[in-house]
Amino acid sequence: MDRTRTALVTGATSGLGRHTAGLLAATPGWRVLLGARDVDAGLRLAGGLGPSTGVVPLDLADLGSVRAAAAAAAGHAPIDALLLVAGLQSTRADRTSADGFELTFAVNHLGHFLLTQELLPHLAPGARVVVVSSGTHFGTFRQSGPFPGPRWADPRELARPRVESGARAYATSKLANVYFGRELARRHPELSVAVYDPGLMPVTGLARAYPAPARALYAALAPLVTRLPFAQEPAQAAAQLAALVTGPAGRSGRYVERDREAPSSPESTDPDRARELWEVSAELVGVPAR
Ligand SMILES: NC(=O)c1ccc[n+]([C@@H]2O[C@H](COP(=O)([O-])OP(=O)(O)OC[C@H]3O[C@@H](n4cnc5c(N)ncnc54)[C@H](OP(=O)(O)O)[C@@H]3O)[C@@H](O)[C@H]2O)c1
User: What is the fold of 5-285?
Assistant: First the structure.
């Protein structure tokens, strides 16, 4: 490798993002920009990981912060890998981002959409982009158990706060992640895009918005649940995710379930929805639909 490669990881201060950032920072030839909404946590993490890291303040629930983060990351261009790991699971769908969008859709999709758009001119040719989705986008018992499935609608509707369960809004945002990854691969053949599903990781911070008794029960069951075939430790998932960036480039636009390419849900393969989501997202965040 002729130069140090740079990766930007969103959601780097917890769970999957934290483990992945640690692995990449320890990989010779790589430096990692830690996307962190809690800058102190980012700085503490960077201090522990060593000199091959930097911190980029990033609140995906605030488009102004996303633009500033992209500008800061662009100062380290070319960016060789963009890992869109940050995610939010809420108990409701009536909370809003700084810009008035439904919070889950804003953080899990719109913020990442804008970050990617702003960084497109600063990505190295062949740059890896990994969008972290979830099996909940299937909405089937086999893939996501009793978790409610997505309910797709006009993306302008999805961006509006509404009365709906936060879990359903989460599954819908994870379906948006698949459409986004596919459309990014289609529009930008110069990139290598993967949509990654880590499976269930019960020991991350994703359930933090749930009521204390539910969290306590989940935490108590976590060691058992982690042993189920569809679950894994975040450290295992992080190794799979990091390999999507440091290993051989696969087919752009593929869906990767844990350690292997797999079909995403039939619903997620609709190219018209993917195109519409892209165009409406561009309109909502105020960028040209390129
Ligand atoms: N856990 C699972 O079972 C599971 C299964 C399938 C897919 N996933 C996906 O895996 C990804 C990582 O989740 P995780 O399980 O590791 O959960 P986690 O521990 O809660 O990590 C989520 C990360 O997202 C960050 N984040 C949340 N809101 C943000 C915002 N407004 N701006 C910037 N960053 C924000 C959090 O920041 P802070 O550190 O500041 O809180 C945290 O670093 C998510 O995309 C999730 O959908 C998880």
Answer: Rossmann fold (3.40.50)
pLDDT digits over 116-156, tens only?
999 999 999 999 999 999 999 999 988 888 889 999 999 99
Ligand 1 site residues, Cβ closer than 6 angstroms = 11, 13-17, 37-38, 58-61, 85-88, 107, 132, 134, 198, 200-201, 204-206, 234
Q: How far apart are CA 43 and CA 186, in angstroms?
A: 36
Q: Whose CA is nearest to atom 36 of ligand 1?
A: 11
Q: How far apart are CA 263 and CA 257, in angstroms?
A: 8
Buried b (16+ CB within 10 A) or exposed e, 132-167: bbbbbbbbeeebbeebbbbebeebeebbbbeebebb
pLDDT digits (tens, 9 = 90+) for 178-205: 999 999 999 999 999 999 999 999 988 8
- Burial of 285: CB neighbours in 10 Å, binned 0-12, 13-18, 19+: buried
